[in-house]
Specification:
There is one protein chain. The protein is an alpha+beta fold and 307 residues long. The chain folds into 2 domains: 155 residues, 3-Layer(aba) Sandwich (Beta-lactamase), CATH 3.40.710.10; 133 residues, 3-Layer(aba) Sandwich (Beta-lactamase), CATH 3.40.710. Helices cover 49% and strands 11% of the residues. The chain has a 5-stranded antiparallel β-sheet, with helices on both faces. Helix 3 packs across helix 4. The protein binds glutamine (GLN).
Length: 307
């Protein structure tokens, strides 16, 4: 059944083709994330996008069969899951909801905040939230989240075990320091299980279709979870792209989230979702191609939530 047409519905395949080609071109200036060995092997030119509209239209471009780890794109969904499972009080007792002007893995920010993570979209916040996911151990916790997400989104996310091995091969001292700071200040009980869970959920992987489907949960999540979806979209809009969040809000005006793999999700409230993958990153750790493409779509079709 077709729902009423939206501004997104007017997107033309030729426009997408032009913007995606230019996005690949621009991303040549970016850096591939190298601190996870397997991510360093990603194809610089690799590019895929899927856009879904609430009226059922779908646009795709590029290597849409390519799977990639969500990395930080999982953070909004850890938040959503916990809001639904545990409620707002439990979640926001453990993590703040203010933007941060520092990089996504900043210890300085955490120390300045006396150990309470600023928001759920940066590493400290997501590590703290990972510790709240119900389950006996990291594996069971990740499985609980995975099952719930695949049910909600009708997606086919899976744990990329090779990626996880690669993450574990080079211990991330920075994330350890964040976890230890939170233990010392009482915001985290067990740093091992928190980090193990966090690393696993960051390795939840899928295609741009899966990513767009996750985004659609935030658009039309249904009566039982819409309030939580609103909270998640608000935090994506204010914190999802780290230090670039308010610039992006001004230029683009859509809730969005990026990951170091080059994953990028943007949500168009009431209209649809854009899942994109393009590995080269800018200085803030956001996908250059993903940012460019979403900006073009949003500007041309006037999709900003502030319009
Ligand atoms: N797993 C990654 C890390 O902890 C996720 C960070 C990101 O995608 N920005 O560094």
């Amino acid at each position: 059944m077709k729902i009423s047409t939206t501004k997104l519905s007017s997107l033309q395949a030729e426009q997408l083709d032009t913007w995606a080609t230019e996005a690949i071109n621009r991303s040549k200036l970016g850096q591939i994330s190298a601190y996870i060995p397997l991510l360093a092997q990603a194809d610089r030119q690799g590019f895929a996008v899927q856009i879904m509209a609430v009226d059922g239209q779908i646009w795709s471009w590029g290597s849409i069969g390519q799977t990639f780890p969500l990395m930080s794109c999982v953070k909004p969904f850890v938040l959503l899951y916990l809001l639904c499972e545990l409620g707002e009080t439990a979640v926001f007792d453990c993590v703040g909801c203010e933007p941060s002007q520092r990089p996504f893995n900043s210890l300085t920010q955490l120390e300045a905040d006396r150990g309470k993570p600023r928001n759920p979209m940066i590493n400290s916040g997501a590590i703290a939230l990972a510790s709240l996911i119900p389950g006996e151990n990291a594996e069971a916790r990740c499985e609980n989240l995975l099952t719930w997400l695949n049910q909600q989104a009708n997606s086919q996310l899976f744990v990329d075990e090779l990626m996880l091995d690669s993450v574990n091969a080079v211990p991330n001292q920075n994330n350890w320091n964040l976890a230890l700071e939170m233990v010392q200040s009482g915001y985290l009980e067990n740093s091992e299980i928190a980090l193990e869970t966090y690393n696993r959920v960051c390795c939840l992987s899928g295609t741009v279709e899966d990513l767009a489907k996750l985004g659609m949960v935030l658009v039309g999540g249904g009566e039982a979870i819409w309030e939580n979806c609103r909270t998640v979209k608000a935090l994506m809009a204010t914190c999802g792209l780290y230090e670039a969040s308010s610039r992006f809000a001004r230029l683009v005006g859509l809730p969005a989230k990026s990951g170091v793999s080059g994953a990028m999700l943007a949500v168009i409230p009431g209209q649809g979702a854009i899942g994109c993958y393009s590995p080269p990153l800018d200085r803030e750790g956001n996908s250059i191609g993903g940012l460019f493409l979403v900006e073009q779509i949003a500007k041309s079709l006037r999709l900003s939530v502030f319009d």
